[in-house]
Write a structure and sequence with these properties.
With 64 residues, the protein is an alpha+beta fold. It contains two helices and four strands, in the order βββααβ. Strand 2 and strand 3 form a beta hairpin. Helix 1 packs antiparallel against helix 2. Pfam families: KTSC. This is KTSC domain-containing protein. InterPro entries: KTSC_dom.
């Protein structure tokens, strides 16, 4: 299902970084994210809900 908040997201398996591009144009990288979390986000019905419930507040991030 397309997200109303997230435009796209990608994962760098070597660096364990999840990059999220929001509809607003803002880009964030979440650090030290395990592959399983990325896989679960890909499979989640609502990407935005998954991000809020399983990633924000759990992983360090930086604005790109």
């Amino acid at each position: 299902m397309p997200s109303t908040v997230i435009r796209s997201f990608s994962y760098d398996a070597l660096k364990h970084r999840l990059r999220v591009v929001f509809v607003s144009g803002m880009v964030y990288e979440y650090l030290n994210v395990p592959q399983e979390i990325y896989d679960e986000m890909r499979a989640a019905f609502s990407k935005g809900t998954y991000l809020n419930e399983r990633i924000k507040g759990f992983y360090e991030f930086r604005k790109v």
